Amino acid sequence: MPFRTVVKxxxxxxxxxxxxxxxxxxxxxxxxxxxxxxPGTKLHLNFELDEKTTCRAVGIVQWAKTAPAELARMIKTxxxxxxxHMEKELLALYRKKTxx
Length: 100
Hints:
The chain is mainly beta. Helix content is 12%, strand content 46%.
């Protein structure tokens, strides 16, 4: 079962950009977006798990890939972010969702 949730991200806290998570692990996250930041950039991440629950994390961009708008649907675009800090509730909720 894919894990898909909304994430707000950016170099400032609170983060100003919104996108979707396409993959999540205990070490990092992959975000589908055309608004990417350079590798090495520190990002704040707020995962909106439901109407009432937001989990926060901080990470460093490991890779970033964009594509022209007409190709964005066919090419994997986004960023891979390695966590430097993550609330433990995020991983617990992720595991619960993927087991459902």
